Amino acid sequence: MIDQITPIIVPVITGLAGKNPDEAPEIFAKFFAALVGVLLTVGSVWAFVNLLQGGLEWISSGGDKAALEGAQKRITNAIIGLFILFASWGLYVVVLQFLGFSPIGGGGGFQIKLPTLF
Q: Is the dihedral of CA 114, 12, 42, 106 positive or negative?
């Protein structure tokens, strides 16, 4: 029988060093929230870049029908990607509210927090 729970010792991740294993669910929740924030940020930037690139392709198509259709397809895909991205974020918020968490701030107002790992 183990009388004492040893703290987490992970030399690679310094934020976990010395933590109690009982705090693992809280640490995992913070990590998952940060991961979702990073993925949403990267996805938004990627869609914006594709939207700009599609616009530049449209402008520089010079009347070429194939280039114009390619630019339209890129713009359409970027807009659909943004819609899917924000719909998934909305679903994430609804699921967290259903589970009793407050992903958009405890005071009822919207708070912007930059994602951090720990």
A: negative
